[in-house]
Amino acid sequence: MKSYEVLNHTADIGIVAWGKSLEEVFAHSAQGLFYLIAENPCYKLTFETTVSVDGNDYEDLLVTWLNELLYLFDVEQVFLCEFQITEIGQYFVKAKVKGETYNSAKYPLKHSVKACTYYEARVEEQKPDLWRAQFYLDI
């Protein structure tokens, strides 16, 4: 099973992510987001922090989670590579994320992502042990 797949759109770009659990589909969504930003192999994971966000439902939680990771990229200038979801529910997610300082000279941007949007955002359990998330990014 693929972790995620890129969705082409006329103006934006999206991701469909899959996972065996809600935790895994949120981690794979984050991996897809950073895949679209740049190809950075993350040799040294020198940055680590805990991210906690709340949402009104799974879709709001996904969009808020991804926008918080974008905030870390934009403000802290860290490229995130590892996403360990430590707690998740319908209204909250808490994760330990790891990465390294982003070096734009070494790894140029593939897409300048402004934000994760609510356009066609979905999180659903398709069957036992198969979760699917979909989201679009404003680029």
From TrEMBL:
Segments forming domain Archease: 4-139
Keyword Nucleotide-binding: no
Coiled-coil residue windows: none
GO MF term list: metal ion binding
GO BP terms: tRNA processing
Database matches in Pfam families: Archease
Keyword Metal-binding attached: yes
Keywords from the UniProt entry: Calcium, Metal-binding, tRNA processing
Family that this chain belongs to: Belongs to the archease family.
Name of the protein this chain belongs to: Protein archease
Source species of the chain: Atribacter laminatus
